[in-house]
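Need tokens for this chain, all 630 residues.
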Amino acid sequence: MVRSLLVLLLAAWCTLAGANPEALPGTQVLRGAVVAEGDGVEFPAVPAPVQAVTLPDAWAESRPGFQGTLWYRAEMDHRPAFRGETPGLLALYIARVCSNYEVHVNGQLVASGGRMREPVTQLCNHPQLVSLPAALLVAGRNELDIKVAGHRLEEVGSAQRAGGLSALVVGPHAVLAPYHARQVAWAAGFAQGASAILLLMGGFMFVLGYANRSESRLAYFGAVCVGLAAFDARHWLRDVPVSHRVSEFVLLALLALIAWAAAQFLLRSRGLRLKAADAGLPAQFALVVLSLLVAGAERLHAMALLWYFVFAVEIVVAAALLLRHPGSAETRWTTAALLGGTALAVLLDSLAEARDPAHLPARVAAAALPLMLTFAGLRLVMQHGRARREAEASRAQLELHKRELEQRVREATTEIERNLRHLAEQRAEQVAEKVAEKERKRIAADLHDDLGAKLLTIVHTSESDRISTLAREALEEMRLSVRGLTGRPVRLADAMGDWRAETVSRLGQAGIEGEWHGPDEAPHMLSSRAYVQCTRILREATSNIIKHSGASHCSVTCGTADGDFQLVIQDNGDGIAQQDVDSRLDKGHGLASMKNRAKQLQGQCLVESGPGYGTVIRLTLPLDRATGVS
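Here are the structure tokens for all 630 residues:
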């Protein structure tokens, strides 16, 4: 569909923009003129040297090295209206005059394009229509004097901006006005609209790529679009506040930035981040600026051609690396379209320089690349949206797997606790312990070998950072459960070290200042069950602080006193009203879960809070229960 739309737009463009003004009824084309140098208010006097030229006239060919103002004099025949006929207003159509002009009819000034001195008004891409007052015309031969201010080829980056004048078309104003309006719409209006579209799309793509650092290629593509929008302003911007030399220098420097961004876009689309490119492209931009300053205005065109070649080679090499990538058909299509549009624009631009820049190839060259970039940008947005949807689906699937794993862990834990209670009731402690140990090891082995292997595979193979993080969290939770099932006791000092590292790290990642107070050494041992339950209580408390408290500081104090292990967690958050605390305990929220876990170890978990005073959670466990000593 995108290809079909592109073909239709180009066909419509060619139909509207490619009409020949010579075929319009009642028009006459003036191709012969004499020229004379001068900067006066009228055509130079007879002693001044004159030269016959054929229009269109390109100064780079007819007057190499000339810069300034040049007078053209062409003759037109005028037949006044006969008696009874309605006289019609005549007009002069100029397809291209570069850079600015004044029109005199039989010695009288009738039109001016703007400033004739630096900074000269830029009309190279603006077709002109000049009304010829009937009062100034005489029957028979009339003189049309056109004063043109232009620049020599050596001082412009493109031959299309060198001085020159196209053929002159004289005819009825009613016939030429609609044709002129269409030409202005496509020559300047289309370029202005394309610049606006590229600017909007480029800004959106740049922000999108900057916000998603893994999609940095979108930011570079946006930079290309924004840069090209600014570069194409030369097609429609008439008056600039700086001199011609400064504007040409800025255009070439801007083109270096566009080439920099285009090369990086192609490399990042291939998944390559080359240190040579990261350092070389900025250095190249600096070298472009330096070379233009050293070359000066007299050799600007030659230096521009050299850099055009360098930029083209860079982009072709980067595109070749991308097109050789076997795994991205969508990206290859986008790249092929961009290269095709760029090649077409360059080819037609070369044809335009060889002929009249006002002809159709120049118009198509100006339109091809913006159109291709627009369609390529839409394609990239579609790809990005599809990738986001796939990532969301993968996350949802992982969440489902995580819930299934949690359910299996809960079921396994419930089964173990049920078996333990049954064995305790039968007072076969020794046999029950052996059976429970065997059962725990079996379930731990199943969890480790089956679910652990699958989660580890997801961690190492998933392309999404979010999915890998969720899988890693589920793996850590499973390992904690397996550790509790194995029954191996843990040194209290080691346990506090693990809790401190995890808690301070989580708080720091959430932007909360974490403070830990506890002894460096503790001679006691914790049973595996007590270690697991304490870990989960601390994790739940930390999660509540991060998600709900709005705190900026949290302190954790742990230690032993009077035969008890004590853990105090205090934050400076919003706090909870007492009735809300009681409601959450009744409804089985995280607070109730923490109290139940403490109760299973013959301990207690108290919650103290108030609105605006933060929350304090106090966990107390008897060491004889926590160590498994009766």
